[in-house]
């Protein structure tokens, strides 16, 4: 008898591949198996299986004085180590999750915590707490408008012979309208509708009743001189 043998060691809490000297006595083997399986030497009952799920026991290592080679083991057989007194060594309880007390937190308690993922997302405006842009503005591309601020202009009107002239002071989207571009104009005469602000939001500065907002298609830019004109009520 000489050499070593490679076997699988199986217990309620462990499974591993091990190599043992065939000269080891079963008593010495049990000392090594206690370190592997956690089962005390006096509690060990060692069966030999041909494979792990084999229902038939090929042998029993029941004589502590006999060497391992006495039992004619073959490589890759299984040493099934059982605990004859598991209540004293807690064998099998490491793999029994049914005995583990679960930590549960109610929804209301979770929302009160200051160290939760929920609070982190709220503070940093992530996920569903991110700031939402105006859906209409974000879903539509604003048209390009070539009306430089500061240029002279004339506003189209339906009244024949009437010219409304002024200076472009603002071009862009506004809060008083859900979509599109508006042009803010400071008229030469006090026939406007505002002072450059609408609904409490200021877009440019001008005297009261000199400001007006119109759509870009109603604006003609050019070298228009100042002209006295009458008021019109078609603009915003």
From TrEMBL:
Annotated TM spans: none
Name of the protein in its database record: CAP-Gly domain-containing protein
A cellular component term, taken from the record's GO annotations: cell cortex
GO terms, molecular function: alpha-tubulin binding; microtubule plus-end binding
Chief site of localization: cytoplasm
UniProt key word Transit peptide: no
Native organism: Neolentinus lepideus HHB14362 ss-1
InterPro entries given in the database record: CAP-Gly_dom_sf, CAP-Gly_domain, TBCB_Ubl, Ubiquitin-like_dom, Ubiquitin-like_domsf
Subcellular location: Cytoplasm
GO BP terms in the entry: cytoplasmic microtubule organization; post-chaperonin tubulin folding pathway; tubulin complex assembly
Record CDD domains: Ubl_TBCB
Domain CAP-Gly: 178-215
Similarity-based family: Belongs to the TBCB family.
Source domain of life: Eukaryota
PROSITE patterns per UniProt: CAP_GLY_1, CAP_GLY_2, UBIQUITIN_2
UniProt domain Ubiquitin-like: residue ranges: 5-88
Keywords assigned: Chaperone, Cytoplasm
Pfam family, one: CAP_GLY
Classification lineage: Eukaryota, Fungi, Dikarya, Basidiomycota, Agaricomycotina
């Amino acid at each position: 008898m000489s050499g070593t043998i490679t076997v699988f060691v199986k217990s309620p809490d462990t499974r591993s591949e091990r190599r043992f000297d065939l000269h080891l006595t079963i008593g010495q083997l049990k000392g090594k198996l206690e370190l592997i399986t956690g089962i005390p030497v006096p509690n060990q009952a060692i069966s030999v299986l041909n494979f792990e799920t084999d229902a038939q026991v090929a042998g029993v290592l029941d004589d502590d004085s006999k060497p391992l080679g006495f039992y004619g083991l073959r490589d890759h057989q299984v040493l099934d180590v059982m605990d004859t007194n598991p209540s004293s060594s807690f064998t099998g309880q490491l793999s029994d999750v049914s005995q583990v007390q679960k930590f549960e937190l109610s929804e209301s308690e979770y929302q009160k915590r200051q160290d939760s993922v929920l609070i982190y997302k709220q503070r940093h405006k992530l996920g569903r707490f991110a700031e939402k842009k105006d859906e209409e503005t974000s879903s539509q591309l604003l048209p390009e408008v070539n009306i430089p601020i500061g240029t002279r202009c004339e506003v189209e009107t339906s009244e024949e012979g009437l010219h409304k002239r002024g200076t472009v002071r603002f071009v862009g989207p506004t809060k008083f309208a859900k979509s599109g571009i508006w042009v803010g104009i400071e008229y030469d005469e006090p026939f406007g509708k505002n002072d450059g602000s609408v609904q409490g939001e200021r877009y440019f500065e001008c005297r009261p009743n000199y400001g007006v907002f119109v759509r870009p298609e109603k604006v003609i830019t050019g070298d228009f001189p100042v002209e006295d004109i009458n008021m019109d009520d078609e603009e915003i």
